[in-house]
């Protein structure tokens, strides 16, 4: 069976972007594949964090996986930090990853720019501010992510568009390890097919791979954006959802349409409607093409509220039973450790460590 691995950071409540871009596909992919879904808490500390919030978010994220339909009977659900192999493999991979590869990562550039809290590219100032406010972990984050994926020899990684570059890096790292330490030498030591690590593919959905902020159709919906009105959190109340859509940025064009580059907000809101209802673009255009925003927005809110309803009820049942969640995470960590430790052992052996 093909292997699937993916994860989300417990940096707040998952939002519609996380759901449509990734979590919904976790559910589809668990059916016929050997799936591992993790809550990547070690990634959550690459920027400043509050320990109490991290603890809470970790449990909330796990409960939201389950509420979204991730099934512990089909998939292994675990917390990253409870499987020691992640940090161990990360170090081994870091030593095989050139700095230049990491310097090209767009997410690092964007997040560190935000942390430096400055406009412009004055090199000296960038350097001074980075030295104080950007952690080394934020820089090496994509290598930890590569370890997350490679540990499980994943074939497929369901993610949103923003993670595509990190998956490409993961592939490059795997190929580099295979080139350096695989081949005949490794085969002689019992390695399968001469490959120390499997090279994964991203699984990016055709619709929903990049849900945009409700306040700016050119930047992605994100947990860390300061303005809560920029996103629909999966646990928002119907009233909050209505208000957020009501206040969502729109434009002054007549009618509604998908795909006009001058109307990123229209494409975004229509795409959310498409995802929430399951209708195709043609029928949405027939239904809403000539609507005004004031007519469309309540309809959109209603569709999203209806689509999140069952998820929210399941979530409420789960939070009443913390022992159930703990048991699933414990079992998940044990199963994941078994698989992950074998991979670390293989990589260490191939690299020349005594095992
Ligand atoms: N806006 C989005 N549209 C589609 N997919 C998205 N994902 C994130 N934002 C969108 C996908 O959701 C999964 C989990 O994301 P994450 O928690 O690992 O971190 P992120 O990509 O950094 O998401 P956020 O919400 O923007 O978090 P912060 O603000 O904390 O960095 C991933 O598969 C991601 O692609």
UniProtKB/TrEMBL annotation:
**What EC number(s) does this enzyme carry?**
6.1.1.2
- Keywords in alphabetical order, please: Aminoacyl-tRNA synthetase, ATP-binding, Ligase, Nucleotide-binding, Protein biosynthesis
Gene Ontology annotations of biological process type: post-embryonic development; reproductive structure development; tryptophanyl-tRNA aminoacylation
What highest taxon heads this organism's lineage?
Eukaryota
Q: Which GO terms describe its cellular component?
A: chloroplast; mitochondrion
Molecular function via GO: ATP binding; tryptophan-tRNA ligase activity
Q: Where in the cell is it found?
A: Mitochondrion
Reaction(s) the record says it catalyses: tRNA(Trp) + L-tryptophan + ATP = L-tryptophyl-tRNA(Trp) + AMP + diphosphate + H(+)
Q: Does the keyword S-adenosyl-L-methionine apply?
A: no
KW DNA repair (keyword) present = no
Q: Which InterPro entries match?
A: aa-tRNA-synth_I_CS, aa-tRNA-synth_Ic, Rossmann-like_a/b/a_fold, Trp-tRNA-ligase, Trp-tRNA-ligase_bac-type, Trp-tRNA_synthetase
Protein family membership? Belongs to the class-I aminoacyl-tRNA synthetase family.
Q: What is the name attached to this protein's record? A: tryptophan--tRNA ligase
Q: Which organism is it from?
A: Chloropicon primus
């Amino acid at each position: 069976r093909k292997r699937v691995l993916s994860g989300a950071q417990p940096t707040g409540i998952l939002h519609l972007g996380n759901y449509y871009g990734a979590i919904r596909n976790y559910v589809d992919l668990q059916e016929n594949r050997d799936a591992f879904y993790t809550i990547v808490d070690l990634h959550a500390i690459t920027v400043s964090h509050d320990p109490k919030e991290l603890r809470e978010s970790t449990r909330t994220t796990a409960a939201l996986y389950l509420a979204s339909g991730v099934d512990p009977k089909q998939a292994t659900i675990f917390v990253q930090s409870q499987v020691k192999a992640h940090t161990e493999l990360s170090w081994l991979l870091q030593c095989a990853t050139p700095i230049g590869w990491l310097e090209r990562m767009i997410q690092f550039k964007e997040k560190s720019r935000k942390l430096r809290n400055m406009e412009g590219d004055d090199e000296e100032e960038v350097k001074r501010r980075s030295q104080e406010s950007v952690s080394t972990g934020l820089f090496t984050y994509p290598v930890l992510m590569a370890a997350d994926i490679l540990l499980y020899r994943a074939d497929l990684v369901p993610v949103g568009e923003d993670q595509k570059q990190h998956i490409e890096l993961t592939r490059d790292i795997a190929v580099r390890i295979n080139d350096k330490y695989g081949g005949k030498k490794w085969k002689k030591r019992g390695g399968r097919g001469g490959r120390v690590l499997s090279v994964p593919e991203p699984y990016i959905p055709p619709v929903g791979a990049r849900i945009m902020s409700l306040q700016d159709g050119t930047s992605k919906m994100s947990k860390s954006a300061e303005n809560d009105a920029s996103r629909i959190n999966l646990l928002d109340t119907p009233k909050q959802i209505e208000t957020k859509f009501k206040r969502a940025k729109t434009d002054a064009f007549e009618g509604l349409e998908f795909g006009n580059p001058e109307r990123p907000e229209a494409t975004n809101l229509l795409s959310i409607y498409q995802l929430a209802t399951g209708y195709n673009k043609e029928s949405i255009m027939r239904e809403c093409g000539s609507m005004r925003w004031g007519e469309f927005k309540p309809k959109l809110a209603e569709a999203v509220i209806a689509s999140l309803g069952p998820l929210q009820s399941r979530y409420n049942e789960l939070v009443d039973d913390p022992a159930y969640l703990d048991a699933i995470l414990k079992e998940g960590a044990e199963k994941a450790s078994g698989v992950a430790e074998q991979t670390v052992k293989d990589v260490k052996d191939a690299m020349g460590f005594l095992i």
